Amino acid sequence: MTRSIPWLFAAAAAAALLSGCVTDPAMIEAGLAQPPAPQVDDAAYVARQDGSFAIPEIPLEQLPAAYRRQTIYYPSAEVPGTVIVDPASRHLYLITGDNTAVRYGISVGRSGFEWSGVATVANRKPWPTWTPPPEMIERKPELAKWEKGQPGGPTNPLGARALYLTTNGVDYGYRIHGTPEWQSIGSNASSGCIRMINQDIIDLYNRVPDGAKVVVLTRDGQVPTGLTLPTAPPKKVAKAVAPAPEIPPAAEPDRTIPDAGPV
137: buried, middle or exposed (CB in 10 Å: 19+, 13-18, 0-12)? Predict the structure, then answer.
């Protein structure tokens, strides 16, 4: 009779696993149990005041559920506090514990601007100044008015917060930042930076310290083996202007008085 007691405990534990009372990654990976349901935070997108700036409400009917902030089951070998960016799914994951992460919707680099690698949060700023790089001004001359920097504010492309990324101490110009163009979330629309809804970047800013690790997966969703940057476009070369052909000076008119003919 005593030998049946361990079996009863084992059976009870298995039943608990199958009923969802306990989350066992092995059972979930084997398809014998369902992962916990995502916890969606729809209240995150209400209007709010942030310092001297007002952040408008995001209409949920226009924001797909897949790109709303939520806590999900997410197996990972990374330590809590690590940020993982998946450009393929347009999601950013903040590891918060064993098999748990907060998932945010993002916008990533459009074609020709994708990158992958491991970076570090070197600095964080609220309502940062944005200075378009020279190559962006070359593509969009109307941005020349901000060549000295656009002050932070509701129309600033960096939005309410920015996390500045470096790799091996080098700043390649990549940021995780907010955006006033929240409709771009879920698309490939940026020049390589990671865009987030302003309410979401404020939440991430409050959770992630300087020095945090950021992993940007490859376009195939794989862990990068190194830093891969977009190929720089060829420099525009001014078309050579052919020199104007030399025109010989006009000949001086013959001013000799002809001999008078017969009278």
Answer: middle
